[in-house]
């Protein structure tokens, strides 16, 4: 839920039991996390602002992309808000080789989307579906989500300057529909 590496093995209490024991069995307080995020990064950390409001992005109630910007070429998150800053720091989102994994995910997603397009042009629907599954099964699903969002953002031609063909694909309604189903 935090790093996106897709190795969820632990259940994290978003609002730690030590802070709020009444949320111990609250389903919305249980998040799938990798053991590194759960035991070594976030642990019982739960920063709050001066009014007592949580400073971590709650992925059950908020869109993380409202608070975080993924620089696709570097695989690094930048904060857009104080919540984004705290989330990056507490969860270590730019450490542990995560940027490198995100950069690799971007390459794999790009290859799969280009292969999807070739299969689409050849009217090979089984192959198209296979390439969509390849994208969906990649670790770092946040990379594909970010690519889809940034394709329509101001400056998208700069973000995808080294791969304008990929930008055109990400803007195709049929591809977006297939990915977001």
UniProtKB/TrEMBL annotation:
<protein>
    <submittedName>
        <fullName>HNH endonuclease</fullName>
    </submittedName>
</protein>
<keyword id="KW-0255">Endonuclease</keyword>
<keyword id="KW-0540">Nuclease</keyword>
<dbReference type="GO" id="GO:0004519">
    <property type="term" value="F:endonuclease activity"/>
</dbReference>
<dbReference type="InterPro" id="IPR003615">
    <property type="entry name" value="HNH_nuc"/>
</dbReference>
<keyword id="KW-0378">Hydrolase</keyword>
């Amino acid at each position: 839920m935090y790093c996106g590496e897709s190795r969820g093995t632990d259940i994290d209490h978003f609002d730690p039991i030590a802070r709020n024991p009444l949320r111990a069995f609250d389903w919305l307080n249980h998040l799938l996390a990798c053991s590194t995020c759960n035991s070594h990064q976030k642990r019982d950390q739960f920063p709050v602002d001066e009014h007592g409001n949580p400073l971590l992005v709650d992925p059950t109630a908020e869109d993380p992309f409202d608070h975080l910007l993924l620089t696709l070429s570097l695989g690094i998150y930048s904060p857009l808000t104080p919540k984004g800053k705290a989330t990056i720091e507490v969860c270590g989102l730019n450490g542990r080789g995560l940027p490198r994994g995100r950069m690799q995910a971007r390459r794999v997603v790009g290859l799969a989307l280009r292969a999807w397009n070739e299969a689409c042009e050849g009217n090979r629907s089984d192959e198209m579906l296979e390439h969509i599954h390849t994208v969906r099964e990649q670790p770092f699903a946040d990379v594909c989500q970010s690519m889809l969002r940034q394709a329509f953002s101001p400056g998208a031609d700069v973000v995808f300057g080294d791969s304008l063909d990929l930008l055109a694909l990400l803007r195709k309604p049929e591809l977006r529909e297939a990915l977001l189903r």
